[in-house]
């Protein structure tokens, strides 16, 4: 069990400083409102390439593999930035790191609107991925300053910022048609700057721990304890070697990474499978993102009410069934019957496909919301480390999926290869959960 700072003597986390600290209710309200807005904007920036795929592929003469690599760039950079930014937020304050990461995305948004070569788009995508530092810092920020009795609900509302993908689905096609696709990235500059200004004006960081008062017998000349960088690295490596930090993070990373990858892949998949325009396909993909956002809030609220550790099993099993059904490509089967030949044809209609996808989205959201609440409950003192680790693993998984979806489709020759791969990944994840359960049973008194 991770060390909880609330249990330490002489270290009140929210001690007022000279009576100037914001009231707890006001602080919680600001955290719950502004942090999800920042999350949503970062996610909206990540989906730029997915919604503008037709224009980008046409102007850059991209193939499916090159486009998949372009989609993966923000997730790759985001994965590499998540853990360092989460630890930095614990040290400097979540608000400061969120502000810095939001402002950092602005020049790269401008660069996307001006770029003309594939390498430029790749580099701009990596820059947009650095906005994931705002996600990791916001997670630490909400965990520290959110309402303690409703931490799961606050974390669920924060995670619902994934609805920013839906914002791109709605707005970007309209802007692209009216003003050209190069104006679409500039659409987010003003909202990003506005949310950064609101964070600067109305949010504050967690109060620094109160220091014990000095006594007369205390040696004022005592030298400070110096810890070498090598010792810090060894200590950090020892922390990461603890399986307790990984057990929930691995499961969370599947749901997070699968959602991010599907949010980027679905518009193109729906357009190719059902003959829709990319704009229409983006609108059809919108219910999936809404379902995941609603599921996040419900899952976090349920985890506040009761310690639903078994919920991850039920959610994983339901998602597994949905992925199994979504993996079926259209097919025909000929049967030599008694009275002649029978021909069966299967092709999931669009409404049936979306119904399964929405049901799976609700379950995936519930899994993310409840798991993040369990991480907060079990590792509240190490939320920056464990939460950052979960986002890092999820980002790496999300970066891997777009190229795997494309290459799997080329290798198998079916468009549903992405769902097949997610099915296999979830089976592996559930085996890890089963091994963790058996490990806990062996070590139980």
From TrEMBL:
How is this protein annotated for GO cellular component?
A: membrane
Classification via InterPro entries: MFS (IPR011701), MFS_dom (IPR020846), MFS_trans_sf (IPR036259), NO3_transporter (IPR044772)
**Transmembrane portions of the chain:** 29-54, 60-85, 97-115, 121-143, 155-174, 186-203, 245-266, 278-299, 311-331, 351-371, 383-405, 417-435
Specify residue ranges for compositional bias: Basic and acidic residues: 1-16
Give the residue ranges for region: Disordered.
1-20
Give GO BP annotations, semicolon-separated: nitrate assimilation
Q: Which GO terms describe its molecular function?
A: nitrate transmembrane transporter activity
Alphabetized UniProt keyword annotations? Membrane, Nitrate assimilation, Transmembrane, Transmembrane helix
- Residue ranges of every copy of the Major facilitator superfamily (MFS) profile domain listed in the record: 28-440
The main place the protein resides is: membrane
How is this protein situated with respect to the membrane? Multi-pass membrane protein
Write out the similarity annotation.
Answer: Belongs to the major facilitator superfamily. Nitrate/nitrite porter (TC 2.A.1.8) family.
By what name is this protein known? NNP family nitrate/nitrite transporter-like MFS transporter
What's the source species for this entry? Halomonas ventosae
């Amino acid at each position: 069990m991770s060390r909880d700072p609330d249990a330490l003597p002489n270290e009140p986390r929210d001690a007022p400083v000279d009576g100037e600290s914001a009231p707890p209710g006001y602080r919680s309200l600001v955290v719950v409102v502004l942090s999800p807005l920042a999350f949503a904007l970062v996610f909206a920036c990540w989906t730029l390439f997915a919604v503008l795929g037709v224009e980008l592929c046409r102007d850059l003469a991209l193939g499916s593999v090159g486009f998949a690599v372009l989609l993966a760039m923000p997730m790759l950079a985001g994965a590499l930035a998540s853990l360092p930014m989460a630890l930095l937020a614990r040290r400097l304050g979540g608000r400061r790191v969120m502000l810095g990461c939001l402002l950092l995305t602005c020049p790269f948004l401008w660069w996307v609107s001006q770029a003309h070569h594939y390498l430029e788009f790749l580099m701009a995508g990596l820059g947009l991925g650095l906005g994931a530092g705002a996600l990791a810092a916001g997670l630490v920020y909400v965990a520290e300053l959110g309402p303690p009795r409703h931490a799961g609900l606050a974390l669920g509302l924060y995670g619902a910022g994934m609805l920013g993908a839906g914002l791109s689905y709605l707005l970007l096609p309209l802007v692209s048609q009216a003003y050209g696709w190069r104006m679409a990235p500039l659409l987010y500059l003003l909202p990003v700057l506005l949310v950064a200004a609101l964070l600067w004006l109305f949010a504050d960081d967690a109060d620094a721990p109160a220091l014990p008062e000095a006594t007369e017998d205390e040696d004022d000349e005592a030298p400070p304890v110096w810890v070498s960088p090598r010792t810090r690295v060894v200590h950090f490596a020892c922390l990461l070697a603890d399986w307790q930090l990984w057990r929930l993070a691995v499961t969370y990373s599947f749901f997070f990474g699968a959602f991010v990858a599907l949010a980027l892949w679905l518009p193109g998949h729906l357009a190719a499978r059902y003959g829709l325009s990319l704009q229409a396909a983006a609108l059809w993909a919108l219910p999936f993102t809404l379902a995941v956002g609603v599921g996040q809030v419900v899952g976090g609220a349920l985890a506040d009410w009761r310690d639903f550790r078994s919920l991850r099993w039920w959610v994983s099993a339901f998602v597994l069934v949905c992925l199994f059904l979504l993996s079926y490509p259209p097919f025909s089967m000929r049967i030599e019957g008694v009275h002649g030949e029978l021909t069966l044809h299967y092709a999931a209609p669009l409404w049936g496909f979306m119904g399964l996808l929405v049901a799976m989205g609700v379950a995936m959201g519930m899994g993310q919301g409840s798991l993040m609440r369990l991480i907060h409950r079990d590792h509240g003192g190490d939320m920056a480390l464990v939460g950052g680790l979960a986002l890092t693993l999820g980002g790496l998984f999300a970066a891997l999926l777009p190229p795997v979806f494309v290459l799997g489709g080329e290798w198998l020759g079916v468009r549903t290869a992405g769902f097949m791969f997610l099915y296999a990944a979830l089976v592996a994840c559930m085996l890890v959960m089963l091994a963790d359960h058996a490990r806990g049973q062996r070590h139980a008194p």
